[in-house]
Amino acid sequence: MSSLRKLIPLGNRILIKKSEPVLKTAGGIYLPDSGKNTQTEGEVVAVGPGARNHEGNIIPVSVAVGDKVLLPEYGGSILKLGEDEFHLYRDEEILGKFH
């Protein structure tokens, strides 16, 4: 985890640790692959400063460290840091955040 503390995404990129997929319902029923949600959730662990607009001003990313976000099924770049796997997305690829 110490290497994660040294990694700061550039531009409007966001580093996310994906949540484990739900394999069993609250009632104890195991879900088949066809019943699993293709959209995933994750937690923001690091954010870049934002992207520059045509005037050179920085527009900050729309999420903050600790936010729970909804991610698309595909996209992002996979990063392995030690035993952990993280995903790097651009701000506009994030589908939404949970409150």
From TrEMBL:
<dbReference type="Pfam" id="PF00166">
    <property type="entry name" value="Cpn10"/>
</dbReference>
<dbReference type="InterPro" id="IPR037124">
    <property type="entry name" value="Chaperonin_GroES_sf"/>
</dbReference>
<dbReference type="InterPro" id="IPR020818">
    <property type="entry name" value="Chaperonin_GroES"/>
</dbReference>
<dbReference type="InterPro" id="IPR011032">
    <property type="entry name" value="GroES-like_sf"/>
</dbReference>
<comment type="similarity">
    <text>Belongs to the GroES chaperonin family.</text>
</comment>
<dbReference type="GO" id="GO:0044183">
    <property type="term" value="F:protein folding chaperone"/>
</dbReference>
<dbReference type="GO" id="GO:0051082">
    <property type="term" value="F:unfolded protein binding"/>
</dbReference>
<keyword id="KW-0143">Chaperone</keyword>
<dbReference type="GO" id="GO:0005739">
    <property type="term" value="C:mitochondrion"/>
</dbReference>
<dbReference type="InterPro" id="IPR018369">
    <property type="entry name" value="Chaprnonin_Cpn10_CS"/>
</dbReference>
<dbReference type="GO" id="GO:0005524">
    <property type="term" value="F:ATP binding"/>
</dbReference>
<protein>
    <submittedName>
        <fullName>Aste57867_23858 protein</fullName>
    </submittedName>
</protein>
<dbReference type="GO" id="GO:0051087">
    <property type="term" value="F:protein-folding chaperone binding"/>
</dbReference>
<dbReference type="GO" id="GO:0046872">
    <property type="term" value="F:metal ion binding"/>
</dbReference>
